[in-house]
Design a protein that fits this description.
mainly beta, 13-stranded mixed beta sheet, 10% helix, disordered C terminus
Amino acid sequence: MWIRTVWGTWVLLLSSWLCLSATASGQVINAGCNDTPGKAPVEWVIRGQPFSALSYVRTFAVGQDGNRRFVRNERYPIRIARNATGCLRIDIVDNPQDACAQLDVLVPPLCRDWDVAVFDLAHQAVTHWTGGDRGYPGSVVVRLDPSQLGDAVRYTSEVPVPATETASDEPDIRVEILGEKVIEGLGVVGVRETRTVRVGAAQPVVATIHEVWMSPGLRLVVQVIDGDPRKQLTIAGLDHVKREVDETLFQPVAGYPVRILPVHLPDYASYAAEDVRHLSFWFVRSFDGGE
């Protein structure tokens, strides 16, 4: 996704010739989600499991009584969705400004504009536009290069699989299978990794956890809990989960121009780089570390 000033600059510079047809460039690309069979391998496209949700990362202080007190959002919440054919949508506020930058509020106010990216991985394409009352809903379509496609698949289709038992050479790490429960109406299974840190003989032992709850059916991480359960925890997860999604979410805004970025444009794939990077927020945190 692109910063607003960059968006405006390259749209103005390229608008006279970006409308070259996909056929003329030797590539067939459609805006939004295309339900026709694609040439790319599709075994990793998750079909028949639509959902929409709000993805968040929040920090909580833990009191002596064990109760959690909200401290702040670690990033502005993002909306994610997947339709029945496996197309993905992500709405992100990258640098919240003005009234919506209230990350110390449990649910920050809605920003006046945000970036939208719809990924059609089966056809190796992403469609980008800006939503909200200050955004420009004209869209641009870019083909993903092989590296970007691989990253997008890894971020959104590969469920993290933690170890099932503690390795003998890591005595300070313990892995527990937590069983099943329901989060946001979804049946999930959980695994907790507890790491014990011994600073010194005069220092207390510190135990931190990394707990992951995932939905095997949706192939989706639903909640992750990190930190010291006696002091502070960071909880990353999904709420407002719905299993029915509006198919119009995966198509460009009607009535506005759609531009196909020709694949012969030098460094064409760089225009999709930020969209792909933002997909790293899709699975919050895994046992491989990081978001």
